[in-house]
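Lecture notes, continued. The same structure-token format from the folding unit now serves as the input rather than the output. Read the line below as a description of shape only.
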């Protein structure tokens, strides 16, 4: 895929930090798996990765830390295990449970 090639090109330059904005959005499951494998490999080589995702499973699989943003504000920053086990903010708890406040208004 184009994304895999783009990641490989970025990786070759030996960056200390790689920024990824929803890298697997709209991809089929096998492509998601391929991209996640590349991201993990890049990480094991010592590159820090800052990535946005709405995919909770992906965050669990790839993240060390989670920065949860709600309505444009940082609500929480925590290690991934603590974030998913004991979210400190009500907004994060609702998001993890799938209870989105804007949905409840309808």
């Amino acid at each position: 895929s184009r994304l895999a090639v783009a990641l490989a090109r970025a990786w070759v330059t030996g960056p200390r930090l790689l920024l990824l904005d929803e890298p697997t959005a709209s991809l089929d499951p096998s492509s998601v798996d391929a991209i996640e494998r590349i991201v993990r490999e890049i990480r094991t080589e010592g590159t820090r990765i800052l990535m946005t995702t709405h995919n909770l499973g992906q965050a669990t699989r790839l993240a060390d830390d989670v920065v949860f943003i709600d309505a444009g504000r940082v609500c929480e920053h925590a290690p991934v295990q603590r974030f998913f086990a004991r979210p400190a903010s009500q907004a994060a708890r609702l998001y993890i449970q799938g209870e989105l406040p804007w949905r409840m208004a309808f």
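Point for the exam: The radius of gyration is 15 Å.
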